[in-house]
Design a protein that fits this description.
two-stranded parallel sheet; alpha/beta; five-stranded mixed sheet; 135 residues; globular; 7 strands; Chitinase A, domain 3
Length: 135
């Protein structure tokens, strides 16, 4: 298995996610994966993040290269998950997509152990690029 791609996250997202991890609500299997991602990330200011990076509340167009299926997903906090097209940061695919840049891919085990290769094709909406920092 290849090493995970380099990721970039904003200081503001880091602070909010650390608060989430410290809260009682964030107990479960997704917290360990998120902690791993946060520990290896390059941290930048919210005004410095390139527009092609997946940040919190970004809408992402990605493709499963193995199944040739496209997805349009919005990366959200757990309390905002559940609506169609949203994925929680604590879900395996959520923490894996977080911080990726257009063109990067992740490999993760899907249902039944089938390997899924998810490639980021576009960041359709990124709060930082839109100047929306208070989300």
């Amino acid at each position: 298995m290849s090493s995970p791609p380099q990721i970039t996250i904003t200081r503001l997202d880091l602070q909010r996610l650390e608060r989430l991890l410290d809260s009682q609500d964030a107990v479960g299997p997704g917290t360990e994966a998120l902690e791993f991602e946060l520990a290896r990330a390059t941290i930048v200011g919210h005004e410095e993040v390139p527009p092609g990076v997946v940040t919190m509340n970004s809408r992402v167009h990605c493709r499963d290269e193995n199944g040739n299926k496209d997805y349009h997903l919005t990366l959200v906090y757990p309390q905002d998950a559940g609506k169609e097209g949203t994925v929680s940061i604590l879900a395996p695919v959520g923490s894996a997509l977080f911080g990726l840049t257009v063109g990067q891919h992740i490999d993760w085990p899907g249902p039944g152990g089938k390997q899924i290769k998810l490639v980021v094709l576009a960041v359709e909406y990124q709060p930082e690029a839109a100047g929306e920092y208070s989300r």
